[in-house]
UniProtKB/TrEMBL annotation:
One of its GO terms (molecular function) is nitric oxide dioxygenase NAD(P)H activity. This is nitric oxide dioxygenase. The lineage of its organism: Bacteria, Pseudomonadati, Pseudomonadota, Gammaproteobacteria, Oceanospirillales. Its EC number is 1.14.12.17. Gene3D superfamilies: Globins, Nucleotide-binding domain of ferredoxin-NADP reductase (FNR) module, Translation factors. Belongs to the globin family. Its cofactor is heme b.
Length: 404
């Protein structure tokens, strides 16, 4: 437990961390990968190149420092990170590696400003935080094994492969040993471990896009990269090298972005942008399967028909469930789209559309998509006075704040 003096020292470092946070975290990752290359496989190089991983860690460190005397307010963030750690197989023995490199980075980056008092306080603060994560992750590993029947990675076979759009492919995965799959929570993701042609092993998270309770797990993977953006290592491998009959290593479902039990009679509003439809589609299937008479509104944003995923599946769901409201909006329609009208409207998802679909009725909102879209939707909902308790969203990649 931290002493009152250590708590005060941590609080005093907040301005320094705000000023030097990203410099510190960049140094930290470079140092850790140099001194402990065995942890490289836990990190996505694309997030390192873009700086998103460093910015996310800097924000998390600052948040922890600000709330060091009441870490309970960070419970949601802790749960999100703990779920990610479990998905990748982080173990207690990895925490000293991070701690040693973090403290060394504080000393090396802050130089003379890193006094013994600061280093001692941050050592105690890190140990306290590590204990929280280790305890929570132990419980998650045990719950996974109890719920899904395995821990760590297990061999699955690709039993079906089909395009969801021009840039997204769906892979249907079944256990090699023939065991019956237990239902996942709608919104959860799988971790896939792949061995690349060069022998490198990588792990990537992909949301489950199918209805819980089926005999397979389905992931739907967008081919990342193109133009000036480097190709995604994991997504390219799945698109180019994995087909029916191939094996992949799969960890049990994880994730805290899940469809909650409905609150009173509030309608359910699901908003999906691009490949962010994957967890949202699983939620849609689950909500419709329950058949409780709850009003469900599904809004899909896409560039155009070429890259609109699951158009056929959505049309079939609408046919089976006539009360389901589906609205498709294109932001950059193709010429043929204006002739054939596979969409309902054009432009960005805006307040006028929400007014038309939902009106002023109180509702619960779940949304997923590119970060700018998440920020835009979150701002719209705040402007409409939707309580934070009714706003649920997920980032793909390192989490960040949607605050202005």
């Amino acid at each position: 437990m931290l002493t009152s003096g250590q708590l005060a020292v941590i609080k005093q470092t907040v301005p320094v961390l705000q000023e030097n946070g990203e410099t510190l975290t960049r140094h930290f990752y470079q140092r850790m990968f140099r001194h402990n290359p065995e942890v490289l496989g836990f990190f996505n190089p694309a997030h390192q190149r873009s700086g998103s991983q460093q910015r996310a860690l800097a924000g998390a460190i600052c948040a922890y420092a600000r709330h060091i005397d009441n870490p309970g307010v960070l419970a949601d963030a802790v749960e999100l990170i703990a779920q990610k750690h479990v998905s990748l197989g982080i173990q207690p023995e990895h925490y000293p590696i991070v701690g040693d490199n973090l403290l060394a980075s504080i000393r090396e980056v802050l130089d003379e400003a890193a006094t013994d008092d600061i280093l001692d306080a941050w050592a105690a603060a890190y140990d306290a935080l590590a204990d929280i994560f280790i305890e929570r992750e132990k419980a998650l590993y045990e719950a996974q094994e109890q719920q899904f029947g395995w821990r760590g990675f297990k061999r699955f076979v690709v039993t079906r492969r089909e395009p969801a759009s021009e840039n997204i492919v769906s892979l249907y995965l079944e256990p090699e040993d023939g065991t019956v799959l237990q239902p996942h929570q709608p919104g959860q993701y799988l971790t896939i471990r792949l061995t690349l042609p060069n022998g490198e092993t990588v792990m990537r998270n992909y949301s489950l896009s199918n209805c819980p309770g089926e005999k397979f797990y389905r992931i739907s993977v967008k081919r990342e990269g193109g133009g000036d953006i480097p190709a995604g290592v994991g997504s390219s491998h799945l698109h180019d090298h994995i087909g029916v009959g191939d094996q992949v290593a799969v960890a049990p479902p994880c994730g805290s972005f899940i469809l909650q039990e409905p609150k009173a009679e509030k309608p359910l509003v699901l908003i999906a942008g691009g490949v962010g439809i994957t967890p949202i589609l699983s939620m849609l299937h689950a909500a419709l399967k329950k058949g409780e008479g709850r009003r469900v509104v599904f809004v899909q944003g896409a560039l155009n028909s070429a890259v609109q995923p699951f158009a056929g599946e959505l049309a079939e769901l609408k046919r089976i469930h006539p009360d389901l409201q589906v609205h498709v909006r294109y932001s950059d329609p193709l010429p043929k789209d204006r002739d054939n009208q596979p969409h309902d409207s054009e432009g960005m998802i805006d307040e006028a559309l929400l007014d038309a679909l939902i009106g002023q009725v109180e509702a619960e909102y779940y949304f997923c998509g590119p970060a700018p879209m998440l920020k835009h939707i979150h701002d719209l909902l705040e402007h409409r006075g939707v309580p934070e308790a009714d706003i649920h969203y997920e980032f793909f990649g390192p989490a960040k704040s949607l605050a202005a």
